[in-house]
C-alpha cells in the first residue's frame, strides 16, 4: 500500500471510506510515482562531471548527501568535531535525509542533476546584454526582453498550481533575475488562471519520517520561498491574468505593483482548508486594507473581484480583459526604460525598513502552518479535494 494512503487511512478514516475515495488516491499515487534506474543514476553521476558551471556549495552538499543516501543508506558516520567544518557540513546534509529510502534518494539525485544540467546550460548560453528565453525550466517560462524579465507560471492544465518543483524554480528564477541586466521583473500566469495556489498533491508524497517530517520540510521550503520575495531587490510586478488563490494572493503584498485583468479574482480560503495565512499576509494585508477587511479575506475566505481588490489597495490597477495584455505590457516597457539603479534604490528605501519585520513574520507564519498541516481539519480538506469531493 502506498505510504500516504496507508497513513491517511490509519489517521483520518477510522471506520470507513466515506471521507476518502481510496481508489482515486491510489490512482493518483500510481500516476505520480517515478523511479530512476541504476543506469539513470550512473548517467547522472557522469553528467555532474560535465557541468560547465559550479552549482555552488549548497547544491553540492545536496548532491553529496543524496549520493551517499542512494549508495549507503542513512548516515552512518560519527558526527565530525566542531572545527572540522567541511566534514560537519557534509555530515549534516547526509544526516538530514534521515531514513529516506535509497531509491527515493537515487531519484532525487537524478532529478536534481537533470534540473542543474538544463538550468546551468541555459544560463551559460546567454550572452550578457542579449535578450533571451530560458528553456531550462519544467514549470516556468522565463524570458528577458526590453529590460523586463518575465517569469510565467506554466502549468496551465493544473491552473498553475505550485508544486514543489515550481517553488524551487521560482526561487531560482528570482535569484537569476535579481542579478541579470533587466530593470524590472514580472510574475504572471499562462492560461486562464494566474495560479490556484499550493498544489494540493504536494501533501501526498509522505517521506519515511511521516507527516511530521513532511510538515517540517514544507515549512522550511515555504520560509525560503517567501524570503526570496522579501529580499528581491528590483521592482517586482504581478500581472494577474486570471483568478488567483492561496499563496499566489498572499504574496501580492510583497510585490511593488499589481496589475489585474477584470477577470481576476482573489481568494484565500485558508480556514476552509484548515490552514492559516502565509506570504507575510498576516502583516501586509491588515496594513494594506485594514484589519477588518484582511480578516474577511484571510479568516472568512471572502473572494474579492479585481475591482474590490483594487479598492482595498491590494491591486494597483484593473484593466478590461480584452485589452489587458496590450495595455499592461506597454506600460511595463515604459517603466523598464527608467534608470535601473534609481529604481532599485527607491525600492530599497521604501521597503528596507520593513525587511527585518517581514522575515520575522514569515518565520512565525511558517511555524504556525507547520502545525496546521498536521491537523485533521487540514488533512480532511486535502483528502476531500484529492478525492474529487470538493472544490473552492
Ligand atoms: C509548501 C508551501 C505551502 C504554502 C501554503 C499555501 C497555501 C495555499 O495556496 S492554499 C490554496 C490551495 N488551492 C486550492 O485549494 C485550490 C484547489 N483547486 C480548486 O478548488 C479548483 O481546481 C479551482 C477552483 C482552482 C479550479 O476549478 P476548475 O476550473 O473546475 O478546474 P479543475 O478543478 O478541473 O482544475 C483543472 C486541473 O487542475 C488541478 N488543480 C487545480 N488547482 C489545483 C491545486 N491547487 N492543487 C492540485 N491540483 C489542482 C485539478 O485537480 C485538475 O486536475 P485534473 O483533474 O488532473 O485535470
Description:
- This protein is α/β, with parallel strands linked by helices and 392 residues long.
- The protein has two domains: 38-118, Acyl-CoA Binding Protein, CATH 1.20.80.10; 140-390, 2-enoyl-CoA Hydratase, Chain A, domain 1 (Alpha-Beta Complex).
- The chain is built from 15 helices and ten strands.
- It has helices at residues 3-12, 22-32, 38-50, 57-72, 85-95, 102-124, 164-179, 210-230, 247-250, 281-289, 291-298, 306-311, 324-335, 340-372, 376-386, and strands at residues 132-134, 140-145, 148-153, 184-189, 236-240, 244-245, 257-261, 265-267, 304-305, 317-319.
- It has a seven-stranded mixed beta sheet, sandwiched between helices. It has a three-stranded mixed beta sheet with strand order 6-8-9.
- α4 crosses α5 (85-95).
- Bound molecules: ligand LGGBLMCM.
- Ligand LGGBLMCM binds next to α8.
- Its main location: mitochondrion.
- Pathway: Lipid metabolism; fatty acid beta-oxidation.
- It is found in: Mitochondrion; Peroxisome matrix.
